[in-house]
């Protein structure tokens, strides 16, 4: 994975729920840390980003829904963030990601 400051630049604390295709939870946590962010296997109250994989836990999803400061993203969006050399706020990244998907579909 590239060594970017994507997660640190926007103060992200990342948590995970469900399984990520092709990546273990430990590898995902390590990838976030290598890219300047904080991550954990649990979901502390200061979590800002929840990566939702296959067969996610409903409790973590409910917490993310209840907490205004926590945004949910898909595993695909997470993998794209790891490859992205730019720094974005989460909403900016979501707009960028969806625009790139639209470009690829055209």
Order of helices and strands: HEHEEHEHH
Which overall shape is indicated by the principal axes computed on the Cα atoms?
globular
The tally of strands reads 4
Figure out the total of helices: 5
The rounded distance between the terminal residues' Cα atoms is 28 Å
Widest sheet: strand order? 2-1-3-4
Rounded average pLDDT: 81
The largest β sheet comes out as: 4 strands, parallel
In terms of DSSP E residues, the strand content is 15-25%
- Taking all Cα atoms into account, the compactness measure Rg is 13 Å
Structural class: alpha/beta
> Could you estimate the helical fraction of the residues in percent?
40-55%
Unreliable residue stretches: 1-5
What are the main properties of this structure?
single chain, 106 residues, alpha/beta, four-stranded parallel sheet, 5 helices, 15% strand, globular, disordered N terminus
Summarize the helices and strands and which ones pair or pack:
Elements: H1 6-9, E1 13-17, H2 25-34, E2 38-40, E3 49-52, H3 58-66, E4 71-74, H4 75-83, H5 90-105
Parallel strand pairs: 1-2, 1-3, 3-4
What does this structure look like?
This protein has 106 residues and is of the alpha/beta class. Helices cover 45% and strands 15% of the residues. Helix 3 (58-66) links the parallel strand 3 and strand 4. It starts with 5 loop residues before the first helix and ends with a helix.
């Amino acid at each position: 994975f590239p060594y970017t400051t994507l997660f640190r630049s926007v103060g992200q604390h990342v948590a995970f729920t469900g399984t990520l295709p092709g990546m273990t939870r430990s590898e995902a946590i390590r990838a976030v840390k290598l890219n300047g962010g904080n991550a954990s296997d649990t979901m502390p109250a200061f979590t800002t980003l929840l990566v939702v994989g296959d067969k996610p836990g409903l409790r973590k999803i409910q917490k993310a829904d209840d907490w205004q400061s926590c945004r949910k993203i898909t595993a695909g969006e997470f993998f794209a963030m790891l490859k992205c050399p730019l720094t974005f706020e989460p909403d900016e990244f979501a707009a960028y990601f969806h625009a790139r998907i639209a470009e690829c579909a055209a």
